[in-house]
């Protein structure tokens, strides 16, 4: 399934057009909020990766 990034709803910053070189030179303070949200998601992954059932998270 190929989804346009415009079809994906997220609260994270869009880095799809940012090269690794640009990312390295970006002020870390600009990414702190998104990084915190991402790490929270990693710490509490969904239980239903694959087939069936409602999400295991409440966020």
The chain-level mean pLDDT equals 77
Percent range for helical residues? 25-40%
Q: In percent, how much strand structure appears in the residues?
A: under 5%
Low-confidence stretches: none
Radius of gyration: 14 Å
Judging from the principal axes of the Cα atoms, what is the shape? globular
Distance between the termini: 25 Å
Protein name: FXSXX-COOH protein
Organism: Paractinoplanes bogorensis
Can you put this structure into words, describing what you see?
With 59 residues, this protein is mainly α. 29% of the residues lie in helices and 0% in strands. The chain is built from two helices and no strands.
Structure in a nutshell:
By secondary structure, the protein is an all-alpha fold. The protein has two helices and no strands. This is FXSXX-COOH protein.
């Amino acid at each position: 399934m190929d989804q346009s990034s415009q079809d994906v709803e997220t609260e994270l910053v869009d880095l799809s057009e940012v090269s690794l070189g640009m990312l390295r030179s970006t002020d870390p303070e600009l990414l702190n909020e998104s990084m915190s949200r991402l790490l929270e998601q990693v710490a509490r992954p969904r239980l239903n990766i694959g087939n069936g059932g409602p999400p295991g998270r409440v966020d």
